[in-house]
Amino acid sequence: MNIRWFGTLALSIVTVSALAQDFPSKPITFVVPFAAGGPTDTVARQLAESMRKHLNNVAIVVDNASGAGGTIGANKVARATPDGHTLLVWHIGMASTPALYRKLPFKPLDDFEYLGIINDVPMTLVGKPQLPANTYRDFENYIRANQGKLNLGHAGLGSASHICGLMWQYAVKLDKSMATVAYRGTAPAMNDLIAGTIDVMCDQTTNTTQQIEAGRIKAFAVTTAKPLADHPLLKHYPTLQEMGLRDFNLTIWHGLYAPKGTPAPVLQKLNEALRAALRDPEFVQKQKALGAIVPAANDRRVTPEGHKAFVANEINKLKAVIDAAGQYAD
């Protein structure tokens, strides 16, 4: 046996073991690829508060690296030091960007370590308070009667709000697509919707519920296959399927990711902390209040392997929707 090789291997094992034992050795950063105040930002901050309890109460800070539909922040994590101290909280964009971007600076299935799904979030079709419609049927009729005159806001190419808007317009078969207005996150888009600068948005319940309840915006429908019967506010709104959009079912999920090459023991610690957070009654209740659903302990997607397999399937599914809409980025 090569003694030098054996010694190098032993040292490597000891180093990795020590790294895992000492982890986390400094504050952890959750990179959110959208502006502060948006739905993904809200999820990240609530998750950080719960996960830190299971990581020696280390500080977990949120870094809002917005732009380019989330790809700037995602690429920042893909290129970060793979020691577990820089993580990505992202939604369906992990699956939609491969079809949307011709020159994506990272490969979703190759450049990240998958840690698990955080939640599932229904979407709501909402409009500015000045819209004359109060029901979904009146809303759709109003949109059809004013084709070419109204606009739809979203958080950037590939964002959840962008994908939902594409799917809805495709499903209702408008003669003229609505003009779209892209923002660097849903928080600024929501501000403009409240102000009446934009007309329509399809956004996550984590961003719309409080605004609907306060009467700042109008809600017309939810995007889930079944009504949200357990939600005190959103149970009053129909699903798009009920309104005649056959097979319309869109739920936005969020996941947690580390840079490729992060040591396996560190990944295990992070996954354990994530799973503990998903069982935290306080986190679950906060998510429920926003209309989000935390996956059950036996949901395969909370495992790294199940998470990655799920995203691979979502990439294929969303490619068909995006190709049909024909909207791409350079």
TrEMBL record:
Q: Signal peptide position in this chain?
A: 1-20
User: InterPro entries attached here?
Assistant: BUG, Bug_dom1
Which Pfam families did the record assign? TctC
Q: Which SUPFAM superfamilies match?
A: Periplasmic binding protein-like II
Is-annotated flag, keyword NADP? no
Report keywords, A-Z.
Receptor, Signal
Q: Which family does it belong to?
A: Belongs to the UPF0065 (bug) family.
Please name the PANTHER family in this protein's record.
BLR1237 PROTEIN (PTHR42928:SF5), TRICARBOXYLATE-BINDING PROTEIN (PTHR42928)
Q: What is this protein called?
A: Tripartite tricarboxylate transporter family receptor
Q: Which organism is it from?
A: Tepidimonas charontis
